Amino acid sequence: MTTGTGALSTTHIPAVTDATFAAEVLASELPVLVDFTAAWCAPCRMIAPVLAELARQEAGRIKIVQLDVDDNPRTQAAYGVLSMPTLLLFRAGAPVRSLVGARPLRRLRQDLAPELPWIAPE
């Protein structure tokens, strides 16, 4: 059984739930990268420090949150998330980019750059 803190609990990335998703993600003025994760997911643990570093580097320009799929099946189903980790980037309340699987920071920045040009690797 999971506690709702999910795979990223040690990285200080805030968690969202089915109940808080609309307020925290869809209503956010910043772009939001949602990490659909699970405590049992090894690749989720691999990407956790990457997401923490991206959150640190881009504080104030992008919001990064996690959603534990075991504890929040409604949101997972609503966005058709089948694999973990899945990263969904939201802008103005709509998903604009989907990334599946763990990746290093440089590649994550490259993958997000089409939607967030300022985030491209140096």
Automatic annotation (TrEMBL):
Q: Where is the Thioredoxin domain?
A: 1-117
Q: Which UniProt keywords apply?
A: Disulfide bond, Electron transport, Redox-active center, Transport
InterPro entries assigned: Thioredoxin, Thioredoxin-like_sf, Thioredoxin_CS, Thioredoxin_domain
* PROSITE patterns, per the entry: THIOREDOXIN_1 (PS00194), THIOREDOXIN_2 (PS51352)
Q: Which SUPFAM superfamilies match?
A: Thioredoxin-like (SSF52833)
**Family assignment from sequence similarity:** Belongs to the thioredoxin family.
Q: What is this protein called?
A: Thioredoxin
